Amino acid sequence: MQLYNLKDHNEAVSFSEAVVLGIGSGQGLFFPDHIEPFSQQEIESLLAMPLVPRSQRILRHLIGDELPELEDIVADAFNFKAPLKEVGGNKYCLELFHGPTLAFKDFGARFLARVLSKVRGDKHLTILTATSGDTGAAVADAFYGQKGIDVVVLYPDGKISPLQEKLIATLGGNIRAVRIEGIFDQCQDLVKTAFDDADFKSRIGLNSANSINIARLLAQVTYYFEAVASLPEDKRAQVVFSVPCGNFGDITAGLIAKALGLKSRFVIACNANDTVPRYLSSGTWDPHATVATLSNAMDISRPNNWPRVEALVKMQGWSLKDFDFGSLSDEETKKAMRNIYKNYGYVAEPHAAIACQCLEDNMKDGEVGIFLGTAHPAKFKAAVDEILGIDLALPEALAQKAQLESKSVLMQPEYETLKNYILKELGL
Predict the structure, then answer these.
(1) Which residue of 114, 179, 204, 399 has the smallest Cβ count within 10 Å?
(2) 93: which residues sit within 8 A by CB, 6+ positions away?
(3) pLDDT digits (tens, 9 = 90+) for 108-132
(4) For residue 417, is it within any domain?
(5) Do the beta carbons of residue 241 and residue 264 sit within 8 Å?
(6) Is 248 part of a structural domain of the chain?
(7) What are phi and psi of 122, to 5 degrees?
């Protein structure tokens, strides 16, 4: 697989090189300049397969001949289900929260961790990643205890749910959790600054597990096929996905699935951090200051993966005007959660509720709608209980974590402070 730096097309790397590097020079994202589609016959064959063999076939098609262990990696990483739950009104929820950390990030993080363990050789790596909630938990779990790899997770203090924090900050060992006094965008800026520090990057073997890493992104392509495969055959012709968007990695993966030949269209679902909906309406890129919301994983005003979306749209000859989109305030999100529960008896956490409402607002006659359930509702138990007037039971994985003490440290959003902390922790 040949990948190019979107900011410097002269920087071309293999898939394995892109995974180890994480990001290119000038903070450019790696992305292919061509995606070979499957034939319609191949698509039909794929949709008849179970999740793991189908995912092996898709990822082998994308990545090519490198990484002989790919099939084994996929089988080990995707050892949980992604069920499609019928909600009502010709709408379904793709429940992506049945992995070990109860969020969709488990697909990408587990795949990335296993790929890195194969391609790093004897090189020590330090994973530095920013999270608005679920990425950090998935990455921490996926890399916990792996020899030769240390992980530092940055997250905004007080702006992720308590249970999300417990999944990140209670492991210890090779996992370090750092609470940043600020917003997610500041965490993300710290990661970007570290990648621009060539000496530091080389010294610690810096890598990232955010969706800027191409391995994370490609793994997520597979569950869009799983969603369509789970539909009755007579409902597969006109599928629309509504994707809750933060860093826009998830919808980028969906668009790659579309480029591969999966018949689908997409609705961009955002909260009050609505940079992209405003951009699609006005043509002006004007990020506002990030605001904290109930749907914290979407609290991102400068999404890293948007350049990939635009590159893919250009590559395929699509138009940004093809996207429907919407954004909900917290009050509108609460209303959506109540309506879904009242009308369908389905418990949706804030991110899924936004996706469901934006789906309802944009579905066309004859379409079958699928919205992504990106996290288990129990990860937002306090909010869900209060808004819906219920007492949601905690899954065992969360119940155990809830009793543990956090091992996180608090830090100002200052690069030199973070750099010195990491060097000290690594004994360098």
Answers:
(1) 399
(2) 84, 85, 87, 346, 348, 352, 356, 370, 371, 372, 373
(3) 999 999 999 898 888 899 999 988 7
(4) no
(5) yes
(6) yes
(7) -100, 15
- Domain CATH for 82: 3.40.50.1100
Least confident span in 66-75, 99-108, 393-402, 416-425: 393-402
At residue 127, the pLDDT reads 93
Whether residue 129 contacts residue 138, with contact meaning beta carbons closer than 8 Å, is answered with no
Q: Pairing mode, if any, of strands 324-327 and 265-270?
A: parallel
Number of independent structural domains in the chain: 1
Per-residue pLDDT of 191-201, as tens digits, reads: 989 988 999 99
Range of the domain at 351: 58-102+215-388
- Determine phi and psi for 314, rounding to 5 degrees: -65, -45
Picking from 25, 420, 17, the residue whose alpha carbon sits closest to that of residue 192 is 25
pTM, two decimals, is: 0.91
- Among 151, 213, 224, 206, which Cα is nearest to 371's? 224
Residue-wise pLDDT for 394-412, tens only, equals 988 788 888 899 999 999 9
Torsion of CA 86, 89, 90, 91, to 10 degrees: -50
**Side-chain half-sphere CA neighbours of 130 within 13 A:** 28
Residue 176 belongs to some domain of the structure: no
